[in-house]
Design goal:
Layout: H1 2-11, H2 13-51, E1 57-61, E2 78-79, H3 81-87, E3 92-98, E4 100-102, E5 105-106, E6 120-125, E7 136-141, E8 149-153, H4 154-160, E9 167-172, E10 175-187, E11 197-202, H5 203-209, E12 215-216, E13 218-223, H6 229-236, E14 244-248, H7 249-296, H8 298-306, H9 311-350, H10 364-389, H11 413-433, H12 439-460, H13 462-472, H14 474-493, H15 495-533, E15 538-542, E16 549-550, H16 552-558, E17 563-576, E18 579-586, E19 613-617, H17 618-623, E20 631-635, E21 641-650, E22 663-665, H18 666-672, E23 677-685, H19 691-700, E24 707-710, H20 712-755, H21 757-765, H22 770-806, H23 818-844, H24 848-853
Parallel strand pairs: 6-11, 8-10, 18-22, 19-21
Antiparallel strand pairs: 1-13, 1-14, 2-12, 3-13, 4-6, 5-9, 7-10, 8-11, 9-10, 15-23, 15-24, 16-23, 17-18, 17-20, 17-23, 19-22, 20-21
Helix pairs in contact: 1-9, 2-7, 2-9, 2-10, 2-20, 7-10, 7-15, 7-20, 9-10, 11-12, 12-15, 13-14, 13-15, 13-22, 14-22, 15-20, 15-22, 20-23, 22-23
């Protein structure tokens, strides 16, 4: 029987290849995700390991908490006197202190040099004292030794055409400073650190630039021979102030690697989710293809039963075919994953996100998981068709046109189908609206609910095929004449097959529609919020619209002729009521830039904050049982607790507000944060937003190239563009599942051509032309694709309605982008035409005489 199974596969090469492709692409996505994230992790690990390769202990600033979801993270520096105390310890062989921060490099045109999603890293070097601890390698020139000198990274030097002796700008707090390039450096053994830029200064210059005179951010320590790192750490710890901590170099490296792994872990899970979706769609394709194949092989299986084959042997035959297909497809997908990894890396590079580079990591885990998942999914998808094959009676071998017998449980099919659909909906509703659930439980309910919903729609879809095919096939019947009419009837002839084929396409389109509606809702709610809040003439933000920028830019704007108000909004990390979050701070003139809807008793609270006042939105006040006068303890990164009192509560628009959960006065914020920076500054000017006023503001900000001025419309468009970039990435990743579903359409049409060989031969014999045959197959493909599109768009809208309803308190509104959905419909038609190209050509080239003799 094993030989029969293998010969059967070889005898149906085309069907085998088309079936395998569905699994190949899904496994490739999983393999590629692991290869990409493992390679990135290895590159980051190399960078961190090189940083502390010659250290035994590392002293660093100590924060009271860590907010990993922030772009305003701030670690306090500690007194440089610690270095003197450490060097005096008897077990210390060497120690050196350094300063690290961030500073953006400015090109010859006065523009910020892009970091491509990386960081603008600044560090200090002390060649005379810390040569053993310096992970940087000088490849040209010499290290900077005084004020006005800088060394830069090799990548920036090459990309921006800078050489030793040239001048380059840096974005300092007081504006752009021009510095002489004395050296070009690389980072240890790493071939690349992504698109991050490096600005390297001597220690005194770095301390002055970053307002850390008499302070260090880090001290690396080497122990004398025979002294363990743990013993060294124990000796150093009593010497440290409250703002510093010490760890072994190994522990410091592991902490940094864990932070990277945690961030990449989220990235990896997101990409793996798309791989799972692709495999889920692939399972539909395999199950449908095998079901059709088995229906066409009734007489073959009956013959096996007639000559003594048992039901168990028939089952093993079909499962063996699936095992071979799954194994071969998984191996191919595993290695195709290398290409997928490169494609994903190129995709993110095109978005401006560049990762560090190192040798490709092809881990054992990647091999095992990819092959195991591919094989298991294939076997599970083939199980139901395999069981159906065992029900073929031996007598069918002598019957013309024998079909599979109906099972005793088939009468319960409608009940099971409806129950599955209901279960999926209930799980989704529970996952979205259920209270008291952990994040993991909620995601589990949503994930399983979505999968079961798709299965429920798929098993119920056959009841909708006839009416949908009748409606969606009508234009083809009108335009295509006989070929169009036959195509519509062919789609209606076997509702189960058409439904199964369309369901694979339905899944991808449902998710794409869901993403499109959710994105439209986010854009609409954000736009409404800007329209309601933004009463200033301009907004000043960082060049990328996201990073914080120096508050000194406010002073430059403030002296511009015609300015009537400059109202900054600062941001920083804090711990409030046990949660690590990003708070905000404002000036008393906030009402000049933002229209805040204050609740009774809170009017103009921003002007009355003083040294200990704060305001919050009404939902935050409700969640924490706050009322006017309630105490709000705010812990800063240094561990200092600010005892604030609630002086205002406001009602934010649905799209949110520019404020954090808690907002204090800028005066209090500046007094308690070492490096206060703005997230946004709102500007009022006589005459409003005009080209001449814009030109005046641009001129005033000439010294601050990292700050840009935008009108309300420009600000809104910038934020919407960021949303669109994310949506396009999601469309691209979900497009893989659509491609897989198209293979399902191709499979079905090819098998349909095999099944209807005699029928097509008769049509040709009575006068149908090759062109009409191609048109018939093409129209049938379009009808099937449109059925999948109709189901998918309906399910996508349903999921979006549920989700936006659940997120309504967060400001997300339901906005259906009808133009985008119309494009999806056109794309579905194009996909149907594309999927039909090969089957239509094959059908039109059938030999009429041979077709009439085909069994």
């Amino acid at each position: 029987m094993n030989a029969v199974a293998l010969k059967g596969l070889l005898g149906r090469k085309l069907r085998t290849v088309l079936t395998a492709l569905a699994i190949v692409l899904g496994v490739a996505m999983i393999s590629g995700t692991y290869v990409l994230t493992d390679t990135i992790t290895a590159a980051f690990t190399n960078v961190v390991s090189d940083s502390y390769s010659n250290s035994d202990a590392v002293i660093s600033g100590k924060v009271a908490f860590k907010n990993t979801n922030s772009n305003t993270e701030e670690t306090p520096a500690f007194p440089a006197a610690v270095l003197t105390k450490v060097k005096a310890l008897p077990d210390v062989a060497a120690a050196a202190g350094g300063v690290g921060d961030q500073v953006k490099l400015i090109d010859r045109n006065g523009k910020v040099i892009s970091t491509g999603g990386g960081e603008s890293i600044a560090s200090s070097v002390d060649p005379a004292n810390d040569k053993r601890f310096n992970p940087l390698n000088l490849v040209a020139g010499k290290w900077p030794v005084g004020n006005g000198q800088i060394a830069i990274d090799k990548r920036t030097s090459q990309n921006e055409h800078y050489a030793v002796g040239d001048s380059i700008g840096i974005a300092a707090d007081e504006g752009v400073l021009q510095m002489e390039i004395t050296g070009i450096a690389t980072f240890a053994s790493s071939s690349s650190i992504g698109a991050s830029t490096f600005a390297i200064f001597d220690v005194p210059t770095a301390q002055q630039l970053f307002d850390k005179e008499g302070k260090f951010d880090q001290i690396q320590v080497a122990a004398k021979s025979g002294v363990t790192p743990e013993k060294l750490v124990g000796e150093i710890r009593p010497l440290l102030p409250a703002t510093a901590q010490v760890k072994t170099a190994e522990a410091q490296t592991q902490e940094a690697v864990d932070d990277v792994s945690s961030t990449l872990g989220i990235f990896q899970k997101v990409l793996l989710a798309f791989g799972v979706i692709a495999l889920f769609v692939g399972a539909f394709v395999i199950a449908n293809t095998l079901s059709i194949t088995i229906a066409q092989r009734v007489r073959e299986f009956a013959t096996l039963r007639t000559i003594g084959g048992s039901r168990r042997q028939v089952l093993k035959t079909v499962l063996l075919e699936a095992l071979v297909i799954g194994l071969l497809a998984s191996v191919l997908g595993l290695f195709l994953g290398l290409g997928i990894a490169k494609a994903l890396d190129a995709l993110f590079s095109a978005m401006g996100v560049n990762f560090p580079k190192t040798g490709t990591v092809f881990a054992t885990r990647t091999i095992v998981v990819s092959i195991l998942v591919g094989v298991v999914v294939t076997l599970l998808a083939s199980l139901r068709p395999a069981i159906k094959a065992t029900r073929v009676p031996p007598i069918a071998a002598v019957r013309e046109g024998a079909t599979l017998p109906v099972t005793r449980l088939s009468r319960f099919g409608p009940v099971f189908s409806l129950a599955t659909l209901a279960l999926g909906i209930l799980l989704l509703v529970y996952g979205i609206f259920g209270g008291g659930m952990s994040t993991a439980s909620r995601l589990l309910a949503l994930g399983f609910g979505t999968l079961i919903l798709f299965i429920g729609v798929a098993v119920n879809a056959k009841r909708a095929v006839r009416p949908l095919a009748s409606i969606l096939g009508w234009p083809g019947a009108r335009i295509g004449g006989l070929a169009g009419t036959l195509a519509r009837e062919n789609a209606m002839r076997n509702p189960s097959r058409t439904a199964s084929t369309a369901s694979a396409l339905m899944i991808g389109l449902a998710l794409i529609t869901f993403v499109a509606i959710l994105g439209a809702g986010l854009r609409t709610s954000f736009g409404d919020a800007v329209d309601k809040l933004f009463i200033a003439d301009y907004a000043l933000t960082a060049e990328n619209g996201f990073d914080p920028f120096t508050k000194q830019a406010d002073e430059a704007v403030g002296v511009t002729p015609g300015i009537t108000a400059v109202s900054p909004i600062r941001a920083g990390d804090a711990r409030v009521f046990g949660d690590n979050t990003q708070i905000s701070a404002v000036q008393p003139n906030l009402s000049e830039g933002v229209a805040v809807d204050w609740l009774p008793g809170s009017k103009n609270a921003a002007a009355r904050l003083g040294a200990n006042g704060a305001f919050v939105d009404k939902d935050y006040a409700k969640d924490h049982d706050l009322k006017l006068g309630s105490p709000i303890p705010v812990t800063t990164p240094t561990g200092k607790v600010l005892h604030l009192r609630l002086k205002g509560i406001f009602d934010p628009p649905k799209g949110g507000s520019p404020f954090g959960p808690v907002t204090m006065s800028a005066e209090t914020f500046d007094a308690n944060y070492a490096s206060p920076q703005n997230l946004m500054t709102l500007i009022r000017i006589k005459g409003g937003a005009t080209p001449s006023n814009t030109a005046r503001l641009d001129l005033a900000l000439n010294r601050f190239p990292d700050a840009k001025v935008q009108t309300a419309a420009q600000f809104k468009k910038t934020q919407e563009d960021d949303i669109n970039i994310v949506l396009n990435v999601l469309y691209g990743l979900l497009g893989l599942s659509v491609i897989i579903s198209l293979f399902g359409v191709v499979n079905t049409l090819v098998l349909s051509v095999f099944e209807r060989t005699r029928e097509i031969g008769m049509l040709r014999a009575v006068g149908m032309t090759r062109r009409q045959v191609r048109r018939m197959i093409r129209y049938e493909s379009i009808v099937t694709a449109l059925i999948g599109g109709a189901l998918g768009i309906t399910v996508g809208i349903f999921l979006a309605v549920l989700t936006t309803q659940a997120l309504s308190d967060e400001g997300v509104v339901l906005a259906i982008p009808w133009k985008t959905i119309a494009l999806f419909v056109l794309g579905t038609i194009a996909a149907g035409i594309l999927a039909a190209m090969f089957p239509a050509r094959r059908a039109s080239r059938l030999n009429i005489l041979k077709a009439l003799q085909y069994e």
